[in-house]
Amino acid sequence: MAYDYPPEILSIYLSDDGGSDLTFYALLEASRFSKHWIPFCKKFKVDPRSPAVYFGTTSEPHDTEHGNEWLSTKKLHEEMANLIDTAVKLGLIPSEIRAEHKGFAEWHSVVNSGIHHTILQILIDGRDPNAVDIEGSALPTLVYMAREKRPQHPHNFKAGALNALVIFTCLYVETRATGRVKGQREQDPINSWAGSRDGPSPFSSWTFGTSPSS
Asked: Is 105 exposed, middle or buried (CB count within 10 Å of its CB: 0-12, 13-18, 19+)?
């Protein structure tokens, strides 16, 4: 979410084949932290953009303003991580947290990771003018998706998951089309497993993908 890329054309999709409410909860907490982390990255030109890596490899800056914000943002990150770790250790989401977001209701009928309906939740909607960070700047779209899985139907593993995301992306882009942007946009998936942590990654990926020699 903290990529150095225009938020109005940046969408983050998390494909959770396990259909876990713990993964959804982690993404929900990350969406809240992003409202502080993204403006911090922009203001101080942070690199790498992964908060765990950044705070694990840097020390408190000597500059007073930078140092104060570094400490407060680091504390928020630690609080987020502790909340998620606690939920994982307990193996469940506390009832008071479940009441905070309607998306948790999707898990009332989930049987297990191999048998469940489609779960689709837009945690941050780029079409919403109120979807902003603490500085009032627009946030990128953030989506959780767990495709339907049934034992009698082959799910084609990762290829099937990506196909489900592509279908949803096409539908979502169509609904948010304006006079300035119409129809389907180019889709350039960047796999988080590849360790994409630097701000310019989308530009680098796009440049490579559109190069005549690629």
From this structure: exposed
Write phi, then psi, for 104 (nearest 5 degrees): -65, -20
Strand 119-124: give its sheet, edge to edge: 11-15, 141-146, 119-124
- pTM to 2 decimals? 0.79
List the Cα angle 24/49/60 in 5-degree steps. 115
Confidence of residue 13 (pLDDT cuts 50, 70, 90): confident
User: Which residues are CB-contacts of 2 (< 8 A; sequence separation ≥ 6)?
Assistant: 34, 37, 38, 41, 46, 49, 199
Q: Which residues lie closer than 8 Å to 5 by C-beta, 6 or more apart? A: 140, 199, 202, 203
Distances (CA, A) of 148 to 90, 96, 99, 137, 143: 26, 27, 24, 35, 16
In angstroms, rounded to a whole number, what is the distance separating the alpha carbons of residues 58 and 63? 14
The string of pLDDT tens digits covering residues 160-210 is: 666 666 655 555 544 444 433 333 444 555 555 445 555 555 545 444 444
Burial of 145 (0-12, 13-18, 19+ CB in 10 A): buried
What is the C-alpha to C-alpha distance for residues 153 and 122, in angstroms, rounded to an integer? 26
